[in-house]
Amino acid sequence: MKILRDLLDSQHKHFSKGGNLEKFYPIYEMLDTFLYTPGEVSTGAVHVRDGLDLKRGMVTVAMALMPCILFAMYNTGFQANLALEGMNITEVPGWRGAILSCLGLTTSSTSCVGNFLHGLLYFLPVFLVTNITGGICEVIFSVVRKHEINEGFLVTGLLFPLILPATIPLWQVAVGITFGVVVGKEIFGGTGKNFLNPALTARAFLFFAYPAQISGQLVWTAVDGFSGATALSHAAQGGMGQLLSHYSWSEAFIGLMPGSMGETSVIAVLFGASLLIYTGIGSWRIMLSMTVSAVIFAYLLNCIGSETNPMFSITPAWHLVLGGFAFGTVFMATDPVSASMTLKGHWYYGSLIGVMVILVRVINPAFPEGVMLAILFGNCFAPLIDFFVVESNIKRRERRNV
Question: Which of 9, 143, 326, 329 could potentially form a cystine with 266 if both were Cys, beta carbons 3.0 to 4.6 Å apart?
């Protein structure tokens, strides 16, 4: 490692101020700090607030996402093999079928290795396109603005593929993440200054710009022309009756059903939630308030009922395991940049999103998911929530000093 360290040090003069490659210093600095800790240290009297820096925080979130990523690969392959059950592997179209055939795998849904590798062939291209395209955008803005390339995109690059269907065209993945990074983050100043979650901003753009490729019943299973409605779609069409005819609550909890690649398994999300809460990176206040408010509001609408809207019949317990509620609660709503900053604000912020999720799902079944729109709505109101919380604290202290 000393050879590599010496090599980087010998090239520093070319990228530092006055060097012939000065404008590319952010790229050099990114490589250096990725491999080694920064060489600059603070001098004089400084205040150490926490031993957790941005890099450790992002890596911890990435570790928390690992169960969802692994399950995304398995479930994507499982759903595809379930639809192809009995078909000869040579009949699977495209390069994926050729790879599976070379590996000697079958389309049997009972093959764990086959399911995982088949799903990997769908997840990996989306993951690579996301990170290559988003990374290029980050580098361009860093070079132009002459600031460091930080680890802020690491989590976005993991989250975005997990909230997409397996059949999404790769060019749309590139367009979506470009919009999310540029419009959702960089135009506001980059990492730490965006008020919208970049991954959700990217998905919202695709949802409204290319609805045919990100909604409906033909996009959730990685088999061309195969119709596989999500559990929420069944609920919107026929309420609890149709939902129970296709899935049990335990199946929804485990997540072996059609949906966005990484958000169907509640149990995988809970593993990540435990790590985020233990390390203090994810706000348990936001998770708890969002869950409780959703349960209460869903229960009220369930009690009211409706003869024309089947979604009123969905019980609170089912809302918690359907769609991306659990995934959004743990990994999206708790984003420390776009969420409320104050501790008291966490309660209001989470409660607002929980109510909005059920409101969108039930009152407007044309958008049966609701989590994406609810969190983006909460992002917009987070600064206002913090403002009123701070003002309330100031007034309380003024009354105390009178």
Answer: 326
